[in-house]
Amino acid sequence: MAKQDPALSSLFHALADPTRRSILTRLAEGPARVTDLAGPTGLRLPTVMRHLSVLEEVGLITTSKDGRIRTCAIVPEALNPARKWLDEQRAIWEARLDRLDAFVMNEMKDRE
């Protein structure tokens, strides 16, 4: 098995949860207060804070506090390692499928 990148695994772990993905979707529209992020989830604030903590640990969001209000913002470039890995996997599979296609085409020509 190929050497695994622990940071990439943490990133995919953070993205694996639907609540965290919905929070990121909301933050893609712009920064939001924690209470505004918690509302649509239907979860209690401490649970939402744990999700935000996971997202912040992998660098997908930043938070700032102004008085009693904590605001979150997405960090889009934090998705680059996942995008790069997916692009590499896509290239590997496309190359394999191209070779399979060439093999099948040659086999069909030989049978004609």
**Count of alpha/pi helices:** 5
Label the structural class. alpha+beta
Query: How many beta strands in the DSSP annotation?
Result: 3
What is the helix/strand order? HHEHHEEH
How much β-strand is present in the residues? 5-15%
Percent of residues in helices comes to: 55-70%
Structural shape: elongated
Main pleated-sheet profile: 3 strands, antiparallel
Provide the spatial order of strands within the biggest beta sheet: 1-3-2
Low-confidence sequence ranges: none
- The radius of gyration over CA amounts to 21 Å
- N- and C-termini, Cα separation: 41 Å
| Integer average pLDDT | 93
Domain HTH arsR-type: 1-94
Keywords: DNA-binding
InterPro entries: ArsR-like_HTH, HTH_ArsR_DNA-bd_dom, WH-like_DNA-bd_sf, WH_DNA-bd_sf
GO molecular function, one term: DNA binding
Q: How would you sum up this structure, described in words?
A:
- Pfam families: HTH_20 (PF12840).
- One of its GO terms (molecular function) is DNA-binding transcription factor activity.
- InterPro entries: ArsR-like_HTH, HTH_ArsR_DNA-bd_dom, WH-like_DNA-bd_sf, WH_DNA-bd_sf.
- This is DNA-binding transcriptional ArsR family regulator.
- The protein is of the alpha+beta class and 112 residues long.
- It is 66% helix and 12% strand.
- A 3-stranded antiparallel beta sheet has the order 1-3-2.
Brief overview, please?
This protein is an alpha+beta fold and 112 residues long.
Give me the secondary-structure topology:
Layout: H1 6-16, H2 18-27, E1 32-33, H3 34-41, H4 45-57, E2 61-66, E3 69-74, H5 80-111
